[in-house]
Design goal:
There is one protein chain. This protein is α+β, with helices and mostly antiparallel strands. The chain has one domain: tt1808, chain A (Alpha-Beta Complex), CATH 3.90.1570.10. The chain is about 25% helix and about 30% strand. The protein contains 4 helices and 12 strands; from the N terminus they run H-E-E-H-E-E-E-E-E-H-E-E-E-E-E-H. A 6-stranded mixed β-sheet has the order 3-6-7-8-9-10, with helices on both faces. Strand 1 and strand 2 form a beta hairpin. The longest helix is centred in the first third of the chain and has 19 residues. The protein is globular, with a radius of gyration of 16 Å. The termini are far apart.
């Protein structure tokens, strides 16, 4: 019997990889490469980015809405690319490298790798202190995870709102129409 030898990479080695539009993430030394998402995944992401951006534009204080691919450091050796996320305040135009500010909300539109989106990413976001995580099922359901360690789950099928983004209301049915 032969043991498989895993090759782990450092954060510096990961950051030295060439730019890519592919989703490439670093999880505890392992490089995770995901296949391109399906068109409906991208359409749901686009609709959410539009809804969040319109909301952000109306706020008295600035918020930044970012869509993947964008590297976010959630801890040493943990650089992920949420499908989209919201930051309080503006990110400077000249910003380079991974974003080190903690998002207020991270959003993943569930792909073919459901366990990675539902469990692995949620646990990494929770360990980093992300206060809210949305898991968007492409069929019309949003799970909103909050609370200590993102342990509290709420299923939303009608209107999504959150105290972290005051005044935001997303019509879930229209999102998936």
């Amino acid at each position: 019997m032969h043991a498989l030898q895993r090759t782990l990479v450092s954060e510096a080695e990961f950051l030295a990889l060439p730019e890519s539009m592919q989703q490439v993430e670093l999880v505890d030394g392992e490089v995770v490469v995901s296949p391109a998402p399906r068109w409906w995944h991208q359409e749901v992401c686009r609709r959410l980015v539009v809804a969040l951006s319109l909301w952000a534009d109306e706020q008295p204080s600035p918020f930044t809405v970012i869509q993947s691919p964008a590297d976010v450091r959630f801890g040493p050796g943990r650089i992920l690319q949420p499908d989209l996320f919201v930051l309080e305040g503006r990110l400077p135009r000249e910003h380079t490298g991974p974003i080190t500010r903690l998002p207020l909300v991270c959003v993943e539109v569930v792909s073919s790798n459901r366990i990675y989106d539902r469990v692995t990413k949620r646990l990494i976001y929770a360990a980093a202190g992300v206060p809210e995580y949305w898991v968007v099922e492409q069929g019309g359901l949003i799970e909103r995870w909050t609370g200590e360690g993102l342990q509290v789950s709420e299923e939303i099928t009608d209107q999504l709102s959150t105290p972290r983004l005051p005044g935001l209301v997303v019509d879930v049915e229209a999102l998936f129409a």
